[in-house]
Amino acid sequence: MCSWEIAMGDGNYDRTLREFCIPDYILVPGSEVRSVSHVPACPVIVFINTKSGGQLGGELLVSYSTLLNRNQVFELGKNAPDKVLQKLYATLETLKHNGDNFAAEIQNRLRIIVAGGDGTASWLLGVVSDLKLPQPPPIATVPLGTGNNLPFAFGWGKKNPTTDLQSVETFLNHVKAAKEMKIDSWHIIMRMKAPKEGSCDPIAPLELPHAMHTFNRVSSTDKLNLKGYHTYRGGFWNYFSMGMDAQVSYAFHSERKLHPEKFKNQLYNQSAYLKLGCTQGWFFGSLFQSSLRNIAQLAKVKIMKKGQWEDLHIPRSIKSIVCLNLPSFSGGLNPWGTPNRKKSIYRDLTLPYVDDGLFEVVGFRDAWHGLVLLAPKGHGTRLAQTSRIRFEFHKGAADCTFMRIDGEPWKQPLPKDDDAVVVEISHHDQVSMLATPLCRSKSIYDPSSPSDDREEDDSSEEEPSEDWEERRKFGAAETFKYPDGIDIAQVS
């Protein structure tokens, strides 16, 4: 019996909530099959990361477990989402095979809710992508993190939510009314010759929960593994960034892991992030950092154009580079903006779409440069739109760099004795998100998706002199598969 049937006495309230409830005989293998007269309009499976962001997940867990069948609500960390979904779909397929039409309708209408930060949401997206489920369920995201770029991009907001029963019921009704929208996923592979000394394994900021392990070394049996090389891979849906912004994020996550009791408020978290940006040299790079922090002096960057690799010019002042899939970065800012129509003709730049097989490449000089994003029509330094990018690190340019996938950073050691270090990003697949009417993402296939085609003044587009500073602010799944059609030799 669903827990809401026990806890709630109001008949109207019961009728509302039964639209989301799934009976135990589907959720618990071996349960007695019961006759069900009502098919829920929006059956949901809920995953909650109680350690995310403002740490409100524990309260949400109680609320969802009260309103729904507690067996359809899962705490991440105690329940691996891939195991949960594999078991659920195995049960559904068995019941369907035995002629259970109710189970078939549950599978047709199933939706997933994931509450957590961007890293947690990406983890669930990766799991759904990897499992190749029949009729993969679309996903709605509850913003429990610090930036919450994924929820914001699809209209779910960026502020941590209230956790009372009425608020959760309202969110459930939004999930029922939401429309499906495809989103591209991207695969990252990094390969380097095995260092003669030391380790080049990614260094996470202290110990992180499983949800944050989005970048891992492949196993010895993986087809990507080559003798004498270290190979790593991962995936993203929001963004991949490298440079100073990832370094600040790494410092933030390390500090939060050391003192979790201080990071229970989203406003405090954002303030702490800003302070760390100052101490790490993101605001005053010339005072703290050497020129080797510039991306152009760290790596050569190439993009795929018409089937050929072409060098991408990176201004030597750029200290952070972002490969952006969504129109939201750094807590809701849009660094790509709307390219001037006249310039977009000869530069071949378009509006950013989340399902067009392209991502946007944007550069930032420092945190002051990023303040332009707060201005109307503000944007970063647009570098390219592409379906594939490659970073080739210069020998001895640095002993490490910092990288970040969908909000989850790591410190990446670089071997000193060899220059064969390559990071390559390529298109992987698509998954379905749920979007509200407030969705900011745009679909290339849906003319009704929100769009702002107004041209902007690109007078700030040209790269300024090197000593010029704008006083402005800047704020996968374990089983991620390597995509077909990629020449492995290209990254060896």
From TrEMBL:
Gene Ontology terms for molecular function: ATP binding; ATP-dependent diacylglycerol kinase activity
Xref: SMART domains: DAGKa (SM00045), DAGKc (SM00046)
Keyword field contains ATP-binding: yes
Entry keyword set: ATP-binding, Kinase, Nucleotide-binding, Plant defense, Stress response, Transferase
A Pfam short name: DAGK_acc
EC number: 2.7.1.107
Gene Ontology biological-process entries: defense response; phospholipase C-activating G protein-coupled receptor signaling pathway
Enzyme type, top EC level: transferase
Regions of compositional bias (Acidic residues) in chain numbering: 453-468
DAGKc domain boundaries: 39-192
Catalytic reaction annotation: a 1,2-diacyl-sn-glycerol + ATP = a 1,2-diacyl-sn-glycero-3-phosphate + ADP + H(+)
Region (Disordered): 442-476
Function noted in UniProt: Phosphorylates the second messenger diacylglycerol (DAG) to generate phosphatidic acid (PA), another important signaling molecule. PA is required for plant development and responses to abiotic stress and pathogen attack. May be involved in the accumulation of PA during cold stress.
Family from the record: Belongs to the eukaryotic diacylglycerol kinase family.
Quaternary context: Monomer.
Protein name: Diacylglycerol kinase
